[in-house]
Amino acid sequence: MSSDSISFLLNWHATPYHAPIFLAQHHGFFKDEGVKVAILEPNDASDVTELIGRGSVDMGCKAMVHTIAAKARGFGVTSIGTILDEPFTGLLYLKGGVEGHPHDIEKDHFTSLKGKRVGYVGEFGRIQCLELAQKHGLVEGQDIEFVRCGMDINGALIDGRIHAGVGIESVNGVELEQWCDSVGRPTSDVKLIRIDELAELGCCCFCSILVIVNDKFLAANKEKVAAVMRALKRGADLLHKDPAQAWLDLQHVKKQFRNRVGDDKPNFWAKMFERCYPFMSRDLVNVERDWHKVTKYCQRIEVCDEGFEANYTNEFVQWEHEAQPVDPEANQVALVRPPLPLSRPLSPPPPSMPLD
């Protein structure tokens, strides 16, 4: 049985920053553009680039550093756009630790991780952590231990398996804040040591979430790939035109984003949506300056060699591009401030919403 569906594998389980993808599906934009897209979710985030790179899946999402690493490893993948632009990423930890597993980690002192267990998602997270440890004079196995946690960084933090773990502030951090609130801890106990500041990158572009495609599929299906990107741009346009309505639409698509019956307070998914919103790309463009910085960074941590050619294109982003900030570091400082209010308050879906 054959299918003309384009398989599209997310980098993580469904998350609010995937909004342009789900909005394009919900509003029929893929169909309007003449393509059928099957959206898939991984059980292990480390599988994504390999599955796309070997052609088992046609398209998907992945962070920039992993996209570069995949190409360097011989997997045929190319980035054709960006959906989440420079989200704050680093080592998350809970102030003081958890019951039975206390610690003295300090936000401004990486060396306070001495004697601690640090969690990472996949192989290249470990490489990043190892480079930072070496930079600060910590020896793996002697001064610091790295623990692979896959997609359960928060669970490992909460049960004390690790003292700190690699995560995105607007996603994993929000989940940790939810847990703190549920057990009577202040949400301010959730702390982040930003990797971009430690690595002197100036921004968290290494963890920008990209749209990637298998190279052979791209070469044979440029019209279809262009159609997918047009649909995603229409989804992004809706998101930024009326984010509050977009949130209602997302709850139609993904049941887990909805509140429990009778609960009218914004849930942690709504908070995650609000926190991700400032980083969601308006034009979906691959930022050349970021690719240059992250390629140099990957060469420094020996993920790719000096002759590596960046595997991205803006060929399929055929619309006006947003002006890039003159000072990326100043822009990151501005994003630390609370985001501006959305066009109207986020709200749960009405009780009459069909649970389809």
TrEMBL record:
A molecular function GO annotation: metal ion binding
Cofactors: Fe cation
Pathway(s) it belongs to: Cofactor biosynthesis; thiamine diphosphate biosynthesis
Domain of life: Eukaryota
Residue stretches making up the SsuA/THI5-like domain: 16-246
Binding partners and assembly: Homodimer.
Role noted for this protein: Responsible for the formation of the pyrimidine heterocycle in the thiamine biosynthesis pathway. Catalyzes the formation of hydroxymethylpyrimidine phosphate (HMP-P) from histidine and pyridoxal phosphate (PLP). The protein uses PLP and the active site histidine to form HMP-P, generating an inactive enzyme. The enzyme can only undergo a single turnover, which suggests it is a suicide enzyme.
Protein name, entry field: 4-amino-5-hydroxymethyl-2-methylpyrimidine phosphate synthase
